[in-house]
Amino acid sequence: MWPKLFFFLALVPTFVHSLAATDEIQDADPAQSGYMGNHNMHPATVGSAIFGQLWKNFYGNNKEKWYAKPLVYTPPGGSQLVFLASTLNIIRTVDAVNGTLLNQRTVQPPFLQSDIGCTDIPDYIGIVGTPIIDPNTNTVFFFSKGYKNGASNGGVANGIYQFYAVDILTLQDKPGFPILVDGRPADNDNTRYFIGGTVLQRPSLALINGYVIGAFGGHCDLFNYTGMLVSVSTLPWVGVASIYAMEASPGAPPVQSDIMVQKGGKAGIWASGMGIATDNGRIYIATGNGIGHANGDVAASGRTPLSTLDEVVGNFAVTSNGKITLSDYFEPYEYVSMDAGDRDLGSAGVMLLDPKTVLDANNLGGFKQGSGGTDNVIQTIISAGAVFGGPGSYPLEGGYIYFTPVGYPTVAYKMGLDSAGKPVFTQVGATAANAAGRVGIGIPTVTTYKDQPGTGILWISDPSAGLQAFNAVPVNGVLTQINIPATGGLNKFQRPAFGDARLYTSDSNGHVICLGSPVALPLNCSTPVDFGDVSIGSTATRTVNCTALIAISSINGCTTGKKEFQCSNATLPKGALSAGQTFSFPVTWNLTQAAINDAQNASYGIVLPGVAGTNLDIYTTNVPAKYSNDLPISLTGNTVSQDPFLTINPPEVDFGGIVVGSQASQSGLDAAVILSNVGAQSLEFLGLAWTGSIMPGDGPIVWNNITNGYLGSGFSSSSLPNIGDILATGASISVPLNFLASSTGAYTTFVQFWTTGGNKNVLLTGSASTAPIANISVSTIEGGWDYSNPVVMDFGNAAAGNTTSRYIQICNSGGSSLTITKSKPPIQQELLAPNSNTDLHEGQVVPINSCAKGQVSIVAAPLGVNRLDHSVSDVWILNTDDVTFGVHDVVVQANIVTRQVGPLLANGSAEYLYLGCYSDGSGRQLQKQFNIASNENGVCQTTCFNAGYKFAGTEYHTECWCGNKPPAASRYTADSLKKCAFSCPGDTSQACGGDGTYVSIYYDRTKYTPGLDSVPPLVSSSSNLTSSSSSAVSSFSSSISSIPTTSSSTSSIVPETSTMSTSAGTAPKPTGPTNLPTIGAYSYIGCYTEATTGRALTGKAYYNDSMTIEMCYAQCSGFAWFGLEYRRECFCGNSLQTGSAVSTSGNTCSLTCLGDGTELCGGSSRLSMYSNLSPVGGSSSSSSSLSQPDPTSTTLSTQSSTTSKPTVTSISTTLATTTSPTSTATVVRGFAPAGCFADPAGGPYTGHNLPKLFSNDSMTPDLCISSALARLSATPATTYAYVGLEYGRECYAGSMAPTPEPTSLAGTKVCTMTCKGDAKQSCGGPKMYNLWVATTATITGTASDQWQSAPAVSTVA
Length: 1357
Prior knowledge:
Helices cover about 5% and strands about 35% of the residues. It is built from seven helices and 91 strands. A seven-stranded mixed β-sheet has the order 84-86-85-90-83-87-91, covered by helices on one side. Strands 48, 50, 51, 53, 55 and 56 form a six-stranded mixed β-sheet that branches. The longest helix has 11 residues, at about 1030-1040. The protein starts with a strand and ends with a strand.
């Protein structure tokens, strides 16, 4: 969250439920004030030995988490129970006292986190928002995320939300429930539908007028989602009553049909798990960043309609029929820049203050309704860091609010009134220690003992330090800690739920924990002991009455926590006590030796007027075992001064830093001090002034009169007390302060007040600096840092079984601290950020001239030898509060490779690929056996290869088996069963079969294509190798597309149809994002690098977060070239700048367009390039001939004869209908396929007979041809008429025919390598290439650049 807090005060009614006084039927209170006044929690008890862990439950799965907070309820006539709801969609009730499981039910299979890729909630996403209980019907209500038709998986498109109403005792559905929420349009925009797969129900629920209100946001801002409020009736069969979208027409972007693309407008309601604040039929929520900016920069009243509610606090009415309507809103004047920096206003929820505090929130402030077009709010507080967990409050003892910035202390602000009666909050205290330096700190919550002042306890849930307790009122500026049992790190954004002297919370390891005070006490004594008002210099005595609850051997003594509270052991009973026996003893509050100011011989130091208290402990020896030996008793009273007495709180005000030139610097930073008279007589102000220093070493103090509120350089006040003003007994005034500086530096001043109640001063400090400047880089293998933008971390080849790590670094070279506002790290099994909770976490502060690093690891699974490569890729999404930085999707990619053993192909890859593990009992799968003492798979494969066998298998360590018959599919055994786990004696890192006659089998890929005869059908029809595939199934699915067979005559290549499929016998269809082959007059010509210096295209640049190919095309009309880069960038030009060429290494154009996930928009420093230049010869027909065009097309062939040398005069083309791979195709950009030709060593072009253009792992004929055509506009321009594709990924081109004249190849083993970019097409093979010839070219005559004869034909069988 952006480190600002806006406060809105509301009159909150009293809610009456027919339930036990210590129950908690929703997350905290309806107003979300965080004050829980009646749960029998006393500081004396909580801080004593009798407060401890009562139970800690674990339900067998550490991936089960509780983001929904526990609820505490006492059914009519029953005992108090706790209701639990988990991310696994499991609901439970347990006994509140001892944790015994009472009931349990799984409502539906949970949604899988792996389907969305967002790491905010790990593993499972079931019930996340805290439910709510209706005590009038014993019903608990909640939203649950799952899949359509009760499936256990299904992806984002099949995700749904159901609304449940269950009986709290039986956990069974109430009649008319559950209700499907999906498929319903929003009331305020009927084109926007609720789509459960794309949204997250995180905030706790509210119940108003018989309707449950749920709020929805997104998953890491992914997918096409819109924040929504949903109202559902609690009555059966009524269902959803209202849906209100936070982004709606006309201001929001148009609705898109692709749910995977973020164009929904966002503006999610997340609230860090806080509840929806309610009062009198109204609800209050805060939203996050969004896309629609309907207000623009024009001021608007919060009472006027607004269709785009991003970065707002909204007040909504809920009618008697459940309809939700917008009543009022507040939107920060700088909301557009907040959107740009991911500084969400709605990272925390809304807190309404207690009615004892003040006013009614009937005017939230609108947009730019303050002076000078700023915010019209009561006060803006600048926090030390990002606040995610929201605020809490304590209405007693003057009223306090609390919040915890990430990595900083929890702070306490006290409420006061300035001289005009305006509420002002002033920082008066903080914890001594910092909170966790990562996101997840919970919402501050305060309890008291029966609403009694002096008993407030502030509870903070820390994801690192665990649950912590503090006295709610700071002493001398410090929130003093109360020692409680350690819980360990808690789950994110928790706050305890409270019962009867017990609390309940959950940790990050799947435990539910109960802390409380046991009932096994030896005595029942009157507590608390209240002394009332006691003047300084006097004493007061009270009597404590006790009854023995058990037989007690002896009373051993008493102690107090402060010296001025006194008890005497001599007044306690001697000897044993029987159960029921009573006794009394006195306790005295002695203020005769206390002093208001430090003075000699003052026994107890300074004693300030106000509430005071401590513990009195009685120690016993008990007859029965398992009873406490320590009984705490609370002592409390009010210290009174008989004279006027001035206090200033806080004594020091640090404004922090202001960024010169920022929007905040226009109005400065605000703070306040509270001047109070805590004496028994009225106080008069005698004078006030300021000075730059009061240090003795700086010479005489020079006091300056205050004129027009000026308090020294940079500081001012709009409301100061006047000389002669009277402050009544117990009264306070708040003095507002402002710090405004236009130049950098440190600023200090002292403001002195002279009064009849003493003289005191307050120190004001502040600093001004320049803005933070963020830069991002990735570590290189050489140990340096790569600052290229966009940022790509390419690990290259990573060996299977190894872990390799590199780092992302964000540095701050500016003049202010930098905050990371968004961080969504990768979470794949083989590509992950191992320290994502601490590395580059949201809210992390990067000091000036410092850097923060995040580790990224490739944890390549140990796949065994001779497996096909597979790639892994993901992004780490990062942003900071440097408004010029922007969202960075750091692309991380690697290619996982395995060891290649045995006979190798020309490209260095293994000829034998792993087929799988097979049962070899009751009939051998392979027929020939060799026993090899140093056996390993490479040795065995070489042995079988030399003996002429297609299959090689290793078994029982030393056995090598060979054969030509495929193993039976029925004997196939999944690798996950680990049946082939015996090590090879020649290489113990390899597996050589297993016990029980299991054999590891490999196949010669040049002689066999796996099919259903050897491998069972796949579950999925995909033929792509995934990152987790390591079994025969993956080899089968990959090799089927990489080892084609051909059957043709002459130079025609017409492969047999050997396509593998598991869905109705149809061939797999290509899926995933693609480039548009043509758009208008433009054609896609390849993936290009940027220029050597600067951009490849310099005519025009355009950036848009909704970028598509069509959008860039429209921007670049009139230019010869346009290119798309890094998902959102568009460039135009009429020529390529020097150095820009087809990318042959490094990054690829594999990033999807932000505006259309089905299209590709370049990569990191790579452009998806389009051109409208005419192809060679000006022809772009899809069917053409060099001489006489044939509209029906014929099969491509080259004619040859052994008795004459006729000239090749005609090449015509046809579209192949076979599946894969083929060189028979339609004309591509004016080039027709001419067949497969030999490329023997010794050619004039570095050993080849055509010049080489480049290599690329996305190679296709179209890519190679378009790259050749691109040289038309290069400097110097080159016209290519001949293009060859070789070895699956190599592109060759020449302006003259291949030299020397190549041999045309035919047969089953020619040009069998599929194109790396399209497995359905052929891209040559080892020392052979598929030749494509421009349709305008004619190969004739005997010149040196022409063939002297038709090529000879060689058949390769």
